[in-house]
Amino acid sequence: MNINRYCDNPIITPGTVLASRKDFQVIGAFNAGVTVFNGETILILRVAERPINSDDKSIKVPFLDDNLNLKVKTFNKNDENYDFGDSRAIHKKGNVAAFEYLTSISHFRLARSTDGEHFKVDEKPFIFPANKYESFGIEDPRVTKIDDSYYITYSAVSKFGIVVMLSSTDDFKTFNNLGAIFATENKDVALFPEKINENYYALNRPISPSIGNAVIWISESTNLLHWGNHKVLIETRDGKWDCKKIGAGSPPLKTDLGWLEFYHGVDDNDRYCMGALLLDINDPSKILARSSEPILEPIMEYETKGFFGNVVFSCGTIVNHGVIHMYYGVSDDSMAYAQFKLKDVLDSMEYLKPKK
Amino acid sequence: MNINRYCDNPIITPGTVLASRKDFQVIGAFNAGVTVFNGETILILRVAERPINSDDKSIKVPFLDDNLNLKVKTFNKNDENYDFGDSRAIHKKGNVAAFEYLTSISHFRLARSTDGEHFKVDEKPFIFPANKYESFGIEDPRVTKIDDSYYITYSAVSKFGIVVMLSSTDDFKTFNNLGAIFATENKDVALFPEKINENYYALNRPISPSIGNAVIWISESTNLLHWGNHKVLIETRDGKWDCKKIGAGSPPLKTDLGWLEFYHGVDDNDRYCMGALLLDINDPSKILARSSEPILEPIMEYETKGFFGNVVFSCGTIVNHGVIHMYYGVSDDSMAYAQFKLKDVLDSMEYLKPKK
Fold it and tell me: What ipTM was assigned to the predicted interfaces of this complex?
């Protein structure tokens, strides 16, 4: 399949983003949600920051304290109680599954473009962690326009786990926090842009410490705030690029053949690729087709190297005249941009035979 | 506090319950939900069964296959890939947090009594695992009467994790499955018996593999099917009987002072006790009081010894003329019964000072 990566990728890098405080540095501007507002392409960037630290014997970690003030805690790298081998988080020794602190704290920043290629990044945060469920940051926003409002779902990380928050905005200046729509642990929530047979639908990715893989579920709602009738939509596939974990990427796009969803798949080497699903237009819990091979995989240097390399991770796409404009985070670091034909995606997928 | 344990405890033991199949044996009849229907006390028993096995070199585990047929898989106890040390589950070697199979499969059986002390157990199951989310069994039912229906929440266990299912019945003969109301992993869901300011409320216990303890959350709904605005209600307490895990027990009881909730707390030795919470009558996310010490703890031999000892675990209570009738599972094995005064519970709790 022909993938047209933008020649001047990455389109946004951490170095072009102003830190929210003088004593912090931006280390990531990635995994953005995308939409069109007032004729402009808007990226809701995840901006990861950490305290500036010139002492290579220590790690400084940022977090909101119980009074919701941003504080910094310093760990000595010789502290034998902790494992500092993960660039993203600090773990207790011997417990790599769970983490104690994140090494950075993320907020959301808007970037705007009139041509979809050149973006101007706001100097100030749009949404900053602001409640006890967000004390370690907010991550990976997806935005869906429903009626006249823009609904933003994102991961809120704290000592209480990883919950999915919903916020809405009508003007990309102010927003309303509408509460946690999925309790811990859930992530990767993509809202469908309209009701289907009287229900809203959301793709989501709950996970259990007891049993089961990270797979994509689908849930329904009548009001966007309360969700239920949770079902597994689609599972990981042994031996494939999506064998270890899968999660929704962009909010689903309405096509003549069904709902098109770009999702991320992770393999046993923690390599993140993007593939596609096609869901029944009247019953999105029914799968019509799935990518056998990835549509987009980390190949370019900006996709294979960075804060956490070998990652392409899209939280949003725009369709325009049969062309998919995919904006995607690379290596937990920067934003890149690619174009490809909707028809090519639909032709590339493996269609399931209907059950008799 | 004066706790009056029934003199002839336990009131139901596995030996008095007929297996659902001739090749199975009942190993547990415990953790029952309780309600009053047509003047009778009804227990919704969790009945755990396993295949009869005379070969002490093997373990036979029951499960529903992909066609929802009950099957048995045999493990050789010498198989070095697995750890057979947990009486409740089979784990992969080196991974005690996650399990591969359960050693028994649970269903729900009704037991009825006219005096609240002597129960007749039905010969046939009331609800049996019947869908892909229940392939390892259904566990720990709680029942709440809302208007004229009885709503039963329970844990459904499968390779997809542990989800909370909702079923309803009007007659305790047939039931409707209303779907998964909380996705994996969640447990210990107790529904309030009425709407409070236009919302239903549920206590629940989601958990994350990444970070955070097993604590009690509260969620709201307008229709009992879809849930949101998830919030942490109350946390574990270091160094106390409820330091490791807590979860809702009985559906909350309406009292003059507020909503009274009996919850279970687990300490670092996996000892399960029951304590109480008092929640604001108009805003159940607000805590008024909490037990400093357990109300009920495993002391009697039937509470300290059994399939999984040192456990008292109540999923339901009845109040009658100021007396609490607590039905509770003991040692993941049998059912016991105790009475105590509502006033004594309310007097025993530690009241939080209102924030100024």
Answer: 0.96
